[in-house]
Amino acid sequence: MKELMELIWVFAQIGACTFGGGYAMLPLLQREVVEKRNWVTEEELMDYYAIGQCTPGIIAINTATFIGYKRKGLCGGIFATIGFVIPSLIIITLIAAFMKNFASLKLVSSALSGIRICVCALILDAVIRLYKKAVVDKVSVGIFLVVLLLSLLTDIPSAMIVVAAGLFGYILVWRGGMAK
Amino acid sequence: MMTAVRLYIEFFLTGLFAVGGGLATLPFLYEMSARTGWFSNQDILNLIAVSESTPGAIGINMATYAGFTTLGPAGGVLATLALITPSIIIIILISKVLEKFRDSAVVKGIFRGLRPASTAMIAAAGLGVARLALLRTDMLAGGNLLQVFNLPAIALAVILFVCMRKFKIHVIAYIGIAALAGILIGF
Predict the structure, then answer these.
(1) pLDDT per residue over A103-132, tens digit each?
(2) pLDDT value of residue A155
(3) Cα gap A43→B50, rounded to integer Å
(4) What backbone phi and psi angles, to 5 degrees, belong to B173?
(5) What three-state secondary structure class fits A75?
(6) Predicted ipTM of the assembly
(7) Which residues from chain B sit within 8 angstroms of residue A104, using beta carbons?
(8) A88 contacts on B by Cβ (under 8 Å)
(9) By residue range, what is the domain housing residue B10?
(10) Domain limits of chain A?
(11) Could you give the C-alpha distances from B178 to A107, B128, B156, B187, in angstroms and in order?
């Protein structure tokens, strides 16, 4: 029970600090869940993210469920996910009830202009760490560059890109190209 | 009561069919508003703005807001729970399968392809945020290339980044400092 409460608490903190969508959640997960608590490895986190992109549902939620499940099975998955949405529920309910003009407040938009800069630095830090773990040979450099260009320059849905990259990895193993 | 059941079903289906980031739920919200009349297109515009300027996953924030508009606080909770139900079921099933096949060569091969792809997508998302936060793309038309770079913003980004690499402080401290800087200086 104590561990389930900890899951809720940790994921509620992550939910409260995630600004700008699911990708911004990653640096927080690296710190809180990988480094500080060793609940999952950096590689597992990447796998969850990749699978979370091409399965139904929002990436952030899928990732929370994955980590919770790894930690404490079925209940863990449910508790981590509930923990993650609690801050949203509270904050959005308050805003919807009392401050419908919230997004147009000057104070909010100036604070956000600063927070966005912080999110850039956080994501850069996260990407550097992931890159070291994920991009280990010429093939993975190639995949990284192709996917980066595709995501930046085209409108191909990311779910399709993820499936294609997985298939590519599978074919390489099948042909013995990546056998290690 | 009928509305509550319908609200749950609508958001359950959204969670089931929306794949990817939170904004993937947006087309479902527009359809829902046309079909049910629970909220207007103006409501949707407002809930996007609020969802993007508050913490939490954007899709979740939008569901809470839309549910609240339909049925009050209980509606917000209901819509949010409905949206996450399919995720929880599907991801737990996948986790069970992964546990079994984690060490198979096929799964390992798939992940060797997935990991660099996943990293690249996060990098692309980061560059998208960076364009918004660090550049003034509207200055591009002016012809003065230097003005395109938002120098104070870039300076703050560099300082924050160096601190993150050096010190182990909770992320909320950096977010707080950045928010404060945004209020005091404005970027």
Answers:
(1) 889 999 999 999 999 999 999 998 998 899
(2) 86
(3) 33
(4) -65, -45
(5) helix
(6) 0.86
(7) 49
(8) 54-57, 60-61, 64, 80
(9) 2-101
(10) 2-133, 135-180
(11) 13, 18, 8, 10
